Q: What sequence folds into this?
């Protein structure tokens, strides 16, 4: 459990710093260190935290079941992963109508993913992991709004093809994870 919690502290500590850091040119560490140096260090530290989360989560399997969710919650989770993956892919593409409407599709994707997995899992380690991601995504959305970042600006040219790519790629990714990759990557079948 210790490595799991340390991983969460490193990963989310760094992301909370990023959400709350000064953007003023004189104090912004990202500008003072140069973008490439800042992002390199940020990436390495994030990966260390993420690696500890993955290892620690696996090591804490079987530590305790807090509740047994009804089977239909797993079906709801499976359905929620479709929009979560579409939004995740939309967040990485140039702006389409999906990105414009949701403003910050990655944060929304994380919230949907975490909520769905909280509904479907009653183990202590799952509640800690998915609860942490949900809490962080809510926190970061608040911080983004406070900074005045309202997503793609009014002058951004929207490309509907990006929505099509997001939909198709999201559905293909969902099918690959649901029917094949989930047991390989996470040790449990998504569909049982």
A:
């Amino acid at each position: 459990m210790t490595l799991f919690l340390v991983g969460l502290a490193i990963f989310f500590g760094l992301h909370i710093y990023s959400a709350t850091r000064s953007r003023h040119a004189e104090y912004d560490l990202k500008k003072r260190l140069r973008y490439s140096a800042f992002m390199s260090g940020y990436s390495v530290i994030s990966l260390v935290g993420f690696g500890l989360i993955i290892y620690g989560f696996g090591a804490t399997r079987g530590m305790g079941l807090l509740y047994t969710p009804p089977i239909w919650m797993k079906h709801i989770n499976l359905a929620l992963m479709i929009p979560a993956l579409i939004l995740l892919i939309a967040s990485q593409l140039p702006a389409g109508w999906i990105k414009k409407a949701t403003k910050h599709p990655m944060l929304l994707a994380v919230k949907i993913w975490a909520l769905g997995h909280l509904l479907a899992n009653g183990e202590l380690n799952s509640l800690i992991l998915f609860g942490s991601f949900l809490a962080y995504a809510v926190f970061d959305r608040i911080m983004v709004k406070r900074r005045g970042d309202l997503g793609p600006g009014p002058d951004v040219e929207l490309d509907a093809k990006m929505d099509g790519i997001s939909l198709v790629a999201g559905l293909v990714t969902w099918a690959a994870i649901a029917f094949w990759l989930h047991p390989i990557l996470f040790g449990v079948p998504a569909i049982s």
